[in-house]
Amino acid sequence: MEIVMSFVIGFLFMAAVYLMLSKSLLRIIIGTGLLSHGAHLLLLTMGGLDGGAPPVVSPGVTDYADPLPQALILTAIVISFGVTAFFLVLAYRSYQELDTDNMNLMRGTEDHD
Amino acid sequence: MTNLLLFPILLPFFFAMILMLFPKKILAQRILALFALGSTLIASVTLLIKVKTDGIQAITLGSWPAPFGISMVSDMLSILLVLSSTVIAIFVVWYSFSSIGKERESFFYYPGILFMLTGVNGAFTTGDIFNMFVFFEVLLMSSYLLIVLGGEKVQLRESIKYILVNIISSALFVVTVAYLYSVVGTLNMADISVKITQIDQPGIITVIAVLFLLVFGLKGAIFPLFFWLPSSYAAPPIPVLALFGALLTKVGVYAIMRTYTLFFTLDQSFTHELLMILSILTIVAGCIGALAYFDVKKIIIYNIIIAVGVILFGASQMNEAALMGSVFYLIHDILIKGALFMLIGVIIAITGTSDLRKMGGLIKSYPMLGWTYLIAAFGLAGIPPLSGFVGKLLIIQGGFEAENLWGSIFILASSLVVLLSVMRIFIYAFWGEPIEITPLSKRHYRGLFTPALILVGISVLYGVGSEWLVPYMSDAANVMLNPSQYIQAVLGGA
């Protein structure tokens, strides 16, 4: 199971890197979404996928899934959610102000903005 | 008071939340922000005295036993850094009163600074690797706000790049923590150190060490990963730049020093060799940049990169002299970079440009500013009675003791380049033909110049009184050299 997940996560990272190297700002933001998705799945996989019960204490169950990675993922999800929301609004603002979403045109030199 | 070590984190956090309630009342914002920072300063000094007399302070939140809860640890290195960050934040806020402008002040500028200080102090104090990630995000989120606040075109453009780089490095941090967790099965830093010693550092731990270097190197701007820093830092207004330049990269440097002295100590011939080579290349890259520009902001920004290289070279030597030198130099660099950015802020305010070629002759109208800048410049380069000297001397001594002759020679040569780059500002801006300037009002000038002057004064005292500071620095170096003290303080008898 971990092998399959590793391949999927690797594919997510590949797609994220490809998108983040493109010119359009929106593609880059989609890339960061895929990147954090991959990172969260990796946390889950690295905690082990050995098929225990959900980590809620219930009578008669001895084998639980590791609760720690789930807590870490929950934290990481809300953080990346906050950052992505900020980034999206920033992209919107800069589209209004700079009139472009092409990263190649957002260069600016010492002489002009 | 076992909770004393949490106060430098909680006080700015608490006051930042209060400040969010009345953003338009600027006078109240200013007074309360200064009050918050003053009380943080008092808490840090108390904590410093306590750490000096009683040894390392550690607490595991919620009374859970040590590896299971989140530990907060304050050893000499972290409390010294917390103290100097708080000092810098006070001066930046004071400087902001007369430079940042009403529009920014009424849009959550001071809460932003206080939240950033929360994140910085938390990252210095935490004893849990995932908690460190969270505090990194706290300080990064506040820095996103501060870098884009005002919404000028250049700020929008550069903050997109800054945020993108930091999102990538944060994702890498999560990935690295995931790998480390799957190998050692714990997140508590002291416990990780014990587990890594038990499994005798197999190859995968060395890979994780390099990944950590990649993550923290992106935050701290080491050689191949510094590309984002110069243009991003040139975008925000001067007080924000002073805050970033003095604090943000130093958090990455601290994290590298902490992980490389606590976790990855068994395969030093690879990891620390790599760190040393990268730090020397960082110095070279910074030197090239510092000489290449005619823009005062860019010159000082590239000096940040040089300083990061010098500190990490000391950290990679792993002997007492070099580590002590690194701590000396780290604190010196926080103080002097804050002071230098404020001083060039005054120069930019007077001349209305940051281009050296359009300045000249300021020494006639502003002699005090000129001589203060000269002292700060000598301090940065490490002229003996001033603050940069002792740190660099110890780092070079440590380099010779570890028989890294060439590395030490690079450090010495870089001092000359640093001196040349900051003296160029002095010569171009203060000597030569006076240019037409519209003089600042006395009150505005005093508001800008006084905090910078006092900060330079503090850095001079830091240099002159270094004899008196040696016991503190050697305590900090000792904990880094003997991680068992740190582990003992967190885990008890383990």
From TrEMBL, chain A:
Residues passing through the membrane, by range: 6-21, 28-49, 69-92
Membrane topology designation: Multi-pass membrane protein
Keywords, comma-separated and alphabetical: Cell membrane, Membrane, Transmembrane, Transmembrane helix
Principal location listed in the UniProt entry: membrane
InterPro entries recorded: CPA3_antiporter_subunitC, NUOK/Mnh_C1-like
Cellular compartment(s): Cell membrane
Presence of keyword Ribonucleoprotein: no
The organism's place on the tree of life at top rank: Bacteria
Similarity comment text for this entry: Belongs to the CPA3 antiporters (TC 2.A.63) subunit C family.
PANTHER family assigned: ANTIPORTER SUBUNIT MNHC2-RELATED
Protein name: Na(+)/H(+) antiporter subunit C
TrEMBL record, chain B:
Membrane topology of the entry: Multi-pass membrane protein
Location of the NADH:quinone oxidoreductase/Mrp antiporter transmembrane domain: 127-414
Transmembrane segments: 6-22, 31-49, 69-95, 107-124, 130-150, 162-184, 204-229, 241-263, 275-294, 299-315, 327-350, 371-395, 407-427, 448-465
Localization in the cell: Cell membrane; Membrane
Claim: Transport is one of the keywords in the record: yes
GO molecular function annotations of the record: antiporter activity; NADH dehydrogenase (ubiquinone) activity
A cellular-component GO term for this protein: plasma membrane
Pfam families reported for this sequence: Proton_antipo_M
GO biological process, one term: ATP synthesis coupled electron transport
Keywords: Antiport, Cell membrane, Membrane, Transmembrane, Transmembrane helix, Transport
NCBIfam families xref list: PRK07691.1 (NF005818)
Family designation: Belongs to the CPA3 antiporters (TC 2.A.63) subunit D family.
UniProt name for this protein: Na+/H+ antiporter subunit D
